[in-house]
Design a protein that fits this description.
Strand order of the largest sheet of chain A: 7-6-5-8-9
Helix content of chain A: 25-40%
Oligomer: heterodimer
Number of helices of chain B: 3
CATH class of the largest domain in chain B: Alpha Beta
CATH superfamily of the largest domain in chain B: Aspartate carbamoyltransferase regulatory subunit, N-terminal domain
Largest sheet of chain B: 5 strands, antiparallel
Number of strands of chain B: 9
CATH topology of the largest domain in chain A: Rossmann fold
Shape of chain B: globular
Number of helices of chain A: 10
CATH class of the largest domain in chain A: Alpha Beta
Order of helices and strands of chain A: HEHEHEHEHEHEHEHEHEH
Shape of chain A: globular
Helix content of chain B: 10-25%
CATH topology of the largest domain in chain B: Alpha-Beta Plaits
Number of strands of chain A: 9
Number of domains of chain B: 2
Number of domains of chain A: 2
Strand content of chain B: 35-45%
Largest sheet of chain A: 5 strands, parallel
Chain lengths: 308, 156
C-alpha cells in the first residue's frame, strides 16, 4: 500500500484497511517514539508547521515526531510576525512554503482550509485541525489508543460530555463504525450528538443509545471517551453546574467497574475526570497523548514515502 | 401537438425553452444559468402559469441553444424541469434535466466558517446526491457540510 504524497485531510478519505495500515506503522515506530531506538528515516527532510491557531499537544507532538525520525522542523512562528499580517492569503502562503519544505502540517481556524491547502501544495499536507470539524491525526491517535489499550473490533464505547460541538467524537464515531461498535452517547440534551450523525450510524447498523447519566451505563462499556464541557455553551450557569457534576468520572464511580474499563480524553481536561482517577489502571489519557507521537511519526513517514 | 400549443403563446423560432420549472423559481433559474443584464439574447419568462400538474414557471431564451451541463444545474432547484430545444418553431429535442453529480461555483456553502466563503482564490465545490427521503443533498467538498434545503436561497 503506497501512501507516498498522500494528503491527510479528513478521516472520511481513509478506508478501514488504510487506517489499519497507519496503525500498524505506528506500532512499528513506537520504540523510536519512546526514545529506545534511533531512526534517521527523515534525514534531510523538512516539515513545515503552519499553525494559525494556538495548539500545544498537536504542535509539540509533530515536532517530536519529526525530530525522533531525524527530520528538521520549519516553524511559521507567530502569525502576527508573518506575511499573513500583510494580507497574504492562505493559498499563496501554501504555494510558497511547499517550495521550502517536504511536507506541511496546517492548523487553521477555517473549516476546509486543509483541503484547500492540498489543492495549492506541491508537497503532502497533513491537517493539524481545521475549524471545528476535522482533526484526523487526533482520530488516528484515538483509534491507536483504543487498539493498544483495549480492542477496536465490536467495541462497546461510551462517549460523554459535549457531543454536539466536540469534533473529536464526531470523527471517532465515523471511524469506529468501520469496525462495528456499540455506542452510548452520554450528554445533557443541549449538547447531544447531532441527529444526522446518529442517523448515519444507524444506517451503518451501529447500535446507538443515548442517555444523560454516566452512572447508569458505566458497567456496560469497555471504553469511556470523555470530552470537555465548556461553560460558554450554557445560557444558564446553574444548568452548567448541574451537568458538570453529572458528567464527571470520579474514584467512587469506578468502584465496582470491570478492571479492563479504559478511560480516554483528548485533553485538556478541566473538571470531568477527578485527579483521583489518574492513578487507577483505567486512566489512559496521558498514554493517549503519548500515542500522538508514534501516530504522527507514521503519518509523516508514510506521506513522505520513506516507509511503505 | 400539445407541446406546440403550450408554446404557442410566445412561440420562439429558435432557442431553448425551459418548461415545468417549479412555480416561483424562474428567477433562480436565470441566476443558476448565469443570465444577467449582460446577456444579449431575448429572454421571456412566465411565473405561476397553470399547467396540467399545477402551477409552473417557464423560461424562454431566443436564438441560443444553452449548454446541457449548465442546464442540468436547474435540477438542483427544480428536478422536474424539462429542456426543449426549438428549431424553426418546432421542438427539435426534449429532455428532462439530469441532476449533476458535482457543481462548482454555483451554490454558496451555508457554513459561514467554510474556507469557500473567505477571500481565498477558490470556488465553492459540492458533490450532489439524490436521497429518496431528503431530496437533493449538496456536500461541501471543503468543509463536508451538507445542504439539505435552502439551495435556491444560496445560489451565487
Amino acid at each position: 500500500m503506497s501512501f507516498k504524497n498522500r494528503h491527510v485531510i479528513s478521516m472520511k478519505d481513509f478506508s478501514r484497511k488504510e487506517i489499519d495500515y497507519v496503525l500498524d506503522t505506528a506500532e512499528k515506530l513506537e520504540p523510536v517514539a519512546r526514545g529506545e531506538n534511533r531512526s534517521r528515516l527523515l534525514d534531510g527532510k523538512i516539515v513545515a508547521l503552519l499553525f494559525f491557531e494556538p495548539s500545544t499537544r498537536t504542535r509539540l507532538s509533530f515536532e517530536v515526531a519529526t525530530q525522533r525520525l531525524g527530520g528538521q522542523v520549519l516553524n511559521l512562528g507567530s502569525v502576527e510576525a508573518s506575511s499573513v499580517m500583510k494580507g497574504e492569503n492562505l493559498a499563496d502562503t501554501i504555494r510558497v512554503i511547499s517550495n521550502y519544505a517536504d511536507l506541511i502540517v496546517l492548523r487553521h481556524p477555517l473549516d476546509g482550509s486543509s483541503r484547500m491547502a492540498s489543492e495549492f501544495s506541491s508537497v503532502p499536507v497533513i491537517n493539524g485541525g481545521d475549524g471545528s470539524i476535522h482533526h484526523p491525526t487526533q482520530t488516528f491517535l484515538d483509534l491507536y489508543t483504543i487498539r493498544r489499550e483495549s480492542h477496536l473490533e465490536d467495541l462497546k464505547i461510551a462517549m460523554a460530555g459535549d457531543l454536539k460541538y466536540g469534533r473529536t467524537v464526531h470523527s471517532l464515531c465515523h471511524a469506529l463504525s468501520l469496525y462495528g461498535a456499540e455506542m452510548i452517547f452520554v450528554s445533557p440534551p443541549e449538547l447531544s450528538m447531532p441527529s444526522e450523525i446518529v442517523k448515519d450510524l444507524q444506517k451503518n447498523k451501529i447500535k446507538v443509545k443515548e442517555t444523560n447519566s454516566l452512572e447508569e451505563i458505566i458497567g456496560d462499556v469497555e471504553v469511556i471517551y470523555m470530552t470537555r464541557v465548556q461553560r460558554e455553551r450554557f445560557l444558564d450557569p446553574e444548568e452548567y453546574e448541574k451537568v458538570k457534576h453529572r458528567l464527571k468520572v470520579t474514584g467512587s464511580l469506578l468502584k465496582n467497574v470491570d478492571s479492563n474499563l479504559k478511560i480516554l480524553h483528548p485533553l485538556p481536561r478541566v473538571n470531568e475526570i477527578s485527579p483521583a482517577v489518574d492513578a487507577t489502571p483505567h486512566a489512559c489519557y496521558f498514554q493517549q497523548a503519548f500515542y500522538g507521537v508514534p501516530i504522527r511519526m507514521a503519518l509523516l513517514a508514510l506521506a513522505m514515502g520513506v516507509m511503505e | 401537438m400539445k407541446e406546440k400549443r403550450d408554446l404557442k403563446v410566445q412561440a420562439i423560432e429558435n432557442g431553448t425553452v425551459i418548461d415545468h420549472i417549479k412555480a416561483g423559481q424562474a428567477l433562480n433559474v436565470l441566476r443558476i444559468l448565469g443570465i444577467s443584464s449582460a446577456f444579449r439574447a431575448t429572454i421571456s419568462f412566465v411565473m405561476n402559469a397553470p399547467g396540467a400538474r399545477g402551477k409552473k414557471d417557464v423560461v424562454k431564451v431566443e436564438g441560443k441553444e444553452l449548454n446541457v451541463e449548465e442546464l442540468n444545474r436547474i435540477a438542483l432547484i427544480s428536478p422536474r424541469a424539462t429542456i426543449n430545444i426549438i428549431r424553426d418553431f418546432e421542438v427539435f429535442q426534449k429532455n428532462n434535466v439530469l441532476l449533476p453529480s458535482y457543481v462548482e461555483g454555483v451554490v454558496r456553502c451555508i457554513n459561514l466558517n467554510c474556507i469557500s466563503n473567505s477571500s481565498e482564490p477558490i470556488k465553492s465545490k459540492f458533490s450532489v446526491l439524490q436521497s429518496e427521503e431528503e431530496g437533493v443533498i449538496l456536500n461541501c467538498l471543503y468543509c463536508e457540510h451538507a445542504i439539505l434545503e435552502y439551495i435556491a436561497e444560496n445560489l451565487l
